[in-house]
Every structure is written in C-alpha cells, then in structure tokens.
Amino acid sequence: MSASAQPAPPAIVRPRRESTASWPLIDRLAYGLCWAVGIGLCVVAVGIVVFMFIKGISALRLSLFVESPSQGVLREKHSGGFLDPLIGTFIVTAIGIAIALPAGVGIAVWLVEYGRPRWLMRTVESAIEMIAGIPSIVLALFGLLLFARPLFALLSGSTSTGGVLGQSFFNAGIVMAVLALPLIVGATREALLQLPARTREASFALGKTRATTTRRVLLPSIRPGIASGTVLGMGRIIGDTAIILILLGTLKLEGTGGAPLLSTLRGTGSTLTYYIYYYAPTGDGNSPQKAYAAGFVLLMMVLALNALVTRLSRGRAA
Amino acid sequence: MLLTVLINGWPSFSTNGLAWFGPGAGANGDPVVQFRAMQTGTALPGHPLLYFRAWPLIWGTLLSTFGAVVIALVISTLAAIFLTEFAPPAAQRVLEPVIRLLAGVPSVIYGLVGLLLIAPWVNGLIGNGRKESVQYVVQLSGSCLLTATLVLTVMILPIMIAFTSGALAAVPAHWREGSVALGANRWRTVWRVSVRAARPAIVSATVFGTARALGEAIMLAMLGGGRPFAPNPLDGLTFFFEPIQPLAASIVKEFGDDPNTPIGHTMYAIGAVLLFSVALLSLAAWAVRQPLKRYGIGI
C-alpha cells in the first residue's frame, strides 16, 4: 500500500490512565456512577430505537403509505393509512424551513457582521433566546389568536359563522418557522464566529464591500454550518405535535376549495406526530398498531436527520 | 406576545380572582367538572361559567417538573463529567450521537414508548391491593406521577448534558493541572475544580431543563393518567402512583378550536401562566448567574 511508504505519524503520547485503585472509596463510587450513567444513556437510546423498530416493522404495511386515514372508523382494518399525515409533514416542514432559513441566516449575518446599533443587536439576541425557551404549545396558542384576525383571512379558511378559522398549513408552517428560527440562527452564528478574520480581511483588501463579502465569501464558506442548523430545525418541526394539534387538527387533508394547491395550503390536515397522538392508546383513535407504524416512520426520519447532522458536523471539523 | 395571550385569558382571571391559583372545594373542585361545564356552556350551580380552580394542574406541574429536574440535574452532571473527563475516545464517539438522538426523538414517541413499555411495568408495581384501597377516590394505573416524571427526566437530560459538558470542556487545562499537581486524584480535581468553575453553566442547564419540563405537553398528556388529580404526599407510596395532569397537558387535552369561548379563555389564561413562569425563570437564572460568573466559566 502507498500509505506504508510515508513516514509513520508521530505516536500521540497519551497520559497513562490513573489507576483508581488508590482512590478513596467515595471517589471510586462516584467514578463508577459516571460510567453507569454513560452506559445507562446508551441503553435508553438503544432501547427506544429497538422497541420502536420491532413494534414498527411488525405493524408496517405498504398499504399504510398510500391510504388516507378515515376519522371516526374504530375498526383497525378500515381506518386507513397515513398518506395524508405524511404529505402534511412534508408541507409543514417545507413552509417552515422556507421561512426560517432566509430569516435565520439573515438575522445571524446581521448580528455578527453588522450588529449596529448595539442596543438593537442586544435586543434581537435576547429575543431569539427567549423564543427558544417558549413552550411550543404557548406559541401555538399565540399563533391561533393572531391568525384568527380578519387581517390574515387569506391564509386560512373560514368558520361556519363566517369568521376566520385561523387553522391552516400556512399558519402552522409560519409558527413552525418561529420554532426552528433559534436553531438556524444559533448554528449560523457559531459558524460565522468561527471563521478566521483573515477571510474577511482578504476580501476587504480586494476592495469588496461588506455585502459582497458576505454573499460571495462568507456564506459559501459556512454552508455546512447553515445546513446542520437547517437540519436541526427540520427535526424540531417534524417532531412537534402541540402546534399541529392547535393549528391544523384534522386527520385528513381538507382543502378550502378554489385553486388546488392553494386550497390544500389554506386548508387543514395533520402530520405524523398528530397521527400518532390520535391513534395512541390514550388518543381518540386508539389503535396502537397504526401508532407504532407511524412512529416507526417518524423515528426513521429523525434518525436520518440525525445522521445527516453528525456527518455535516464531522465534515466541518475535518 | 405575553400581552396578547394574557388579554385573551383575562376573562378567566378576572372572574376567578386570585382563587384561580387555589384549590376548589367539593365535587365542583375537580377541573374536569369545570372544563365540561365550560364546554357545554352550562354554569355550575352557584358559580359563574368561567369558574376555574387550577390548583390540581399547578400542583401536578410543580411535582413533575421538580422531580424530573432534580433527578436530571444529578444524572446530567455525572454524564457530562463522564463525557468530558473519563470516557475513552471510543465511548465519546458513541455517546455524543446518542445524546443528540435522545434530544431529537419527538415527544409523541417518548409518550408512546412510555405508554407501552414503562406504564405496564409500573402498573405491575402498584399491585391490586393498593389499587383497591383507593378505588373510590382515584383509579390508579401505570400512567402516573412516577412514569411521567421518569420519562420527563429522559427528555430534559440531553439539553442539560449539552450545557454542562460544554462548560466542563471549557475549563482551562492549567486549573486542573494545578489541582493534579497538588496531589488530588482525577475525581477530586473534576469535582472541586471543574464542576465548581462550571456552576453558572449548570444553573443555565437547570433553567433550560425546567423550561422544557414546564412546556412539555404532549408526552404528559399521554402519560399523566388523564385526570387532573392533585397527588397527596401524605398517601405514602401511593403518592407516586396517583395521576397528574400538568398545565400544558391540559391545554392539549381540553382546547377546542376557538380562542373566544369560555374554555378558550381559560386555556389562554393557563398559557399566560406558563409563559410568565418561563420568563420569570430566565430572569431568576440571570440573577443567580451574576455572582457566580466572576469565578467560573459561563455561558
């Protein structure tokens, strides 16, 4: 092999592990506890995945992917699949990311590169931090109140009494964007702060303006950071139930009529999380087999996104 | 935002006054009875339509949050120490994605797993004798304070570990080396130097964990037992097996579609309380961190 021709890299000198035999008993106990906790965490994670895997595989049928759910049918055979929630998940994620990505990157770039006036930057910073701490259920309540105003009538259907419904894919997507925003801002900001100053200075030395530098130099070089933030945001959106429960809340896609795409987007529906909640033993549907199958699909999505984040962050480090 | 939510919840507060936070008396003291009254639009005899006493919900929130945060504080500190100090590189490579995975698992899945894996186990733990002894007061099942708290602990662990281990890793190496040079073993060094220096971050971790536990709705709605009951610590061991329904979970379970109904106003009042407590929490954390910051590694 060609590698053997190269000089061997200098052996990394690792300090020999201190033997714990000489430690006092209390310290050894604590050391053992640390190991136990570490292993315990792995066991919990593996347990969840394996459990969902076994239950999910045995409950999964291909037909589940192509059938619509039928609300109110209690016999498991006839209650359909999760086509609509699956589509709903994609719609909500797409809308959420489509709003959160440009907004998040824009805010992060402004915070790091411009950040003036100072007081406004501080305010925006703490506002983003606050948003990250707000429970999603309260976010959803706020969204419903906001979007039920006549001003936003375009975004959702109307109630039987002629008021604005406030529930639609648009609205859920917008609130989801708020949920994903702190993650994207955080990741982009980290990446920007880690860029060496010489990158910027080189571009300035060539006579580029700040805006051109940002667009041509900074953004391309922090692409992995932005991507991992986006993926984290997607994971957050896919996994949220409370917002869907309040801002969408029907199992099937129910359009408002009119132009086909617009009708769906203004209409209501559900996502996989809501589907699981509905069919879980505590929900109204109560057919756990469906919940298992959907849970399995959802967990696979989350796992895939996780693997993506790991790869992206490793790629950046290398 | 706090204002908007508060304004829509105001009718509920103004009708009930400060008694909103208190317990109700008699058969009408049960929040379920109050919710049903609001949903059907028939006021309870002798009370206004918006009559609501939130104490069982608040008590449930306090119990589950406090329990989970205390357990998670211990575990997350140990896990962070393990991750930054003791784990061999191979274990580190495994543990990091594992923690990220635990953070990414949606709360419905936690609810589902808890419902089908932990609840039956806890149900067996209760035993029939204990169930029969209280069956005229409350039905016990595997979905109870204990189950909810345990699963909640797992849910808030990843974010707390992330905060703590980040700060532990940022402790300057020469601080630790100084301690080792003085003859302290590695555990003493970590405990006396690193963890001490990381105290501000541990406070932040606790606050974030508490905020997440307060706001967690779906999992608790699935695993709380489905009944707003205020577990009584005087019940001995049974206390741990009594059902709870925290504030956020109540919104999930009882909210209809319309914010401008009696039930809607009540739900927004609950939302306002949640929002207010989260805001207060971050304020408190800021205040606690200030004196600690001088000696430590902060975030």
Plain-language structure description:
The complex is a heterodimer of chains A (318) and B (299). With 318 residues, chain A is an all-alpha fold. In chain A, 68% of the residues lie in helices and 0% in strands. In chain A, helix 3 (83-114) packs across helix 9 and helix 12 (272-279) runs antiparallel to helix 13 (288-317). The longest helix of chain A has 35 residues, at 25-59. Chain A is globular, with a radius of gyration of 25 Å. Chain B has 299 residues and is mainly α. Chain B has one domain (2-14, 59-293): MetI-like fold (Orthogonal Bundle), CATH 1.10.3720.10. Chain B has helices at 2-16, 31-40, 55-86, 89-104, 107-126, 128-133, 145-170, 173-181, 186-197, 199-215, 218-223, 247-254, 262-293. In chain B, helix 3 (55-86) runs parallel beside helix 7, helix 7 (145-170) runs antiparallel to helix 10 and helix 10 (199-215) runs antiparallel to helix 13. Chain B is globular. Chain B starts with a helix and ends in a 6-residue tail after the last helix. The model of chain B has no long low-confidence stretch (mean pLDDT 85). Chains A and B meet through helix 1, helix 4, helix 5, helix 9 and helix 10 of A and helix 1, helix 3, helix 4, helix 5 and helix 9 of B.
